[in-house]
Amino acid sequence: SVNEIYFNKIIRNLENLGVLAIEIRIIKPKIDDFELIEEFFENTVIETIIQRSYYYEEILNRIKNVNFIRTKEISLYNAPEGRKDNAIHLHKRSVNLNTSWNREFRKPFTIDRRFYIEAQKSLAYFYSKLFIGINGEIKNAPECQEIHGNFHHISDYKQLKKIVTSESFQKYWHISKNEVEICKDCEFRFMCLDNRIPLQRKSDGAFFYDQPCTYNPYINKWSDQEGYQFPEDCGILSNHNEFQINHEKIRLANELIGNL
Length: 260
Prior knowledge:
With 260 residues, this protein is of the alpha/beta class. The chain has helices spanning 4-17, 33-40, 57-63, 113-119, 157-164, 247-256; strands at residues 21-25, 48-54, 71-77, 83-85, 88-90, 131-132, 138-139, 199-200, 207-208, 215-216, 221-222, 236-238, 243-245.
């Protein structure tokens, strides 16, 4: 539920940092929380708010006729059906809002020019992001293991600024998909909002992922398409020990699914 004193502290700090967009996850929603959050940010520089919570029929009935201005999206999870009605998005998917969850990438991508430009020099999901957890923990993103402080102990926005401008906090801001194995060969790499944590191989310093993507750029197939194979099944090895491409195996894989 919404704590007015805590929100006012957050708003002051975010405004001083020049934040223009925020995402708020409401773990235990009260029926008027969504409207209160909209009101809290009414006279701030924050331009875009995304609110996420769990589906409750009484909450949906309350908010569906509200004219939200700064709140561009309200996503309610564990809903009986998936549908969109203006700013309200219902998701059948069951998620735990206390944690991160794997994003499944599908076309069409929703991007703009700014996103495309930023993605050429950074991992777009992590770039310029600040996460404050339910217990006040400060991270770059919910997926990150590193905790850089606690918001409850912040008394001045300069303390928060010192954290978010530190090299350790921004460790994923200056890596691009051009530097990540497999991703660097993907035609969608500058349109991808990937929340997987990149790992760095000790032997050569190269970046890689230990979780597969839902798209294989070597055979141009998505995981829900007929003929999809994991990269390792068509000759690509990317792990803690090595990166190898078996071009003959890729050729045979493409030939088998009719790409050649």
